Amino acid sequence: MVGAEAIGSAVYDAIVRAATTLRPDALAAMRDAEARERSPRGRAILGQLLENARIAADDAVPLCQDTGSVWVLLEVGESECVGGDVPAAVNAAVAAAYADAHLRMSIVRDALVDRTNTKDNTPAFIDIGFRSGTGVTVTVMLKGGGSDNASAVSMLAPGDGEDGVVRFVTETVARTGASACPPLLVGVGVGATFDKVASLAKRALLRPIGAPHPDPRVAALERRIAAEVEALGIGPGGLGGTVTALGVHVVTAPCHIASLPVAVNVGCSAVRSASVEVA
Amino acid sequence: MSEARHGTGSTGPTEVSLPATREVLATLRAGDEVVLTGPVYTARDATHERLLAGLSSEGELPHGLGGQTLLYAGPTPPAAGRPSGALGPTTAKRMDRATPALLKAGIVATIGKGPRSAEVRRACAEYGAVYFAAVGGAAALLAMHVTAAETVAYAELGTEALVRLELDRFPAFVAIDARGEDLYLTAALEWRGAADIDGGDA
Prior knowledge:
The complex is a heterodimer.
Chain A: E1 2-3, H1 4-20, H2 24-36, H3 40-59, E2 69-77, E3 82-83, H4 86-100, E4 125-131, E5 136-143, H5 145-149, E6 152-156, H6 161-176, E7 184-192, H7 194-204, H8 216-230, E8 245-255, E9 260-267, E10 272-278
Helix pairs in contact in A: 1-4, 2-3, 6-8
Chain B: E1 4-5, E2 14-17, H1 22-25, E3 33-42, H2 45-58, E4 69-71, H3 99-105, E5 109-112, H4 118-127, E6 130-133, H5 139-143, E7 146-153, E8 162-176, H6 183-191, H7 194-197
Parallel strand pairs in B: 2-3, 3-4, 4-5, 5-6
Antiparallel strand pairs in B: 1-2, 3-8, 6-8, 7-8
């Protein structure tokens, strides 16, 4: 059995690691971006971001002052039993990690009727799913407000097809990308239902940058969107250049015969996530 | 002390001392790389509501902000021996609704990230103000250019409090200059399609 305390401990460790250490795949992609960026200003900005990653790791300080909302994804093994008050343990871990690691408290009590800062960055936003085997995979993403604000959902018609998906993603990045701290990681969800498609787009940000989609049809779509996004010229920092995205990740799913839901969840240059296995 | 010492040759950034006079700001051009030294005041969403309320009730900028610079940022707490562990710009466009009134009342420069509205461009031109863009996501690096922090007002807002920071060679770019020229409008156009011409399918 996996206890709630063990899950809380994993959440704590994942938050501290994600806040201060750029994902290895993002670091490699950023170095590659610096090599292929053609704008001198863009190269200078990518140089700042690489130096930023070094300072954050060396001094154990946050990569970005927006240390985000906390999204916790718990994938429970089908043969596993989880005991205890998991949401309470997760929120206690969030409060402790944000205080101990000197992270920023960025959550208000209610979006509209009470915008008082909760002062401990709770509550976390928790999703629970199942996977094969035993144990629990605990994944944490710290999502900045600026890049989340750059995200969008649209319910296309099936006849809009792949062209419609490409157009919606490109127009969203063109409209909002310069404010979302490029170079971006563009997460795209296609399918499911109105409420689930945004979650697919967010999960797309978890895939390591540079790892191609296993389905060659989806991989081709990713390359097509990536070319359209690069052609926008937004560049590092939004100040012009040939590298606007470190990657474009698409997740597809079944859907209703009447629907073609599509969502874009924009990840910033400091895309932050970490996973911990709890046995 | 207000001056702008332009870099020699084509590579060095222009040194700008804050608070800067409108005469000095008028010498800067959209696209210039700058380093900023001197006091700035952090202000983001909730802070702007308070500043507008203060401006409305007092008839002038509260807290002696006339002639000063606003930095759109909500820093993390002190760490690694620095006043803030990480401090970087937040999205400027969320402040656009308040900016023309604040520039009219005497704010001479703002620092943030991302494109801004036509109203802000016009207000920069009308009042001789400048919008600087810092690199979003470079907050650990930028925090090394902050030497002191002192809360001035609205401490109850937490990270959204009005805090006076001392900058030391804080790197930025001139995004909108005092003529209303906007780097965000020209930079992407300059590179639009450039990657595509190269194949761009990487």
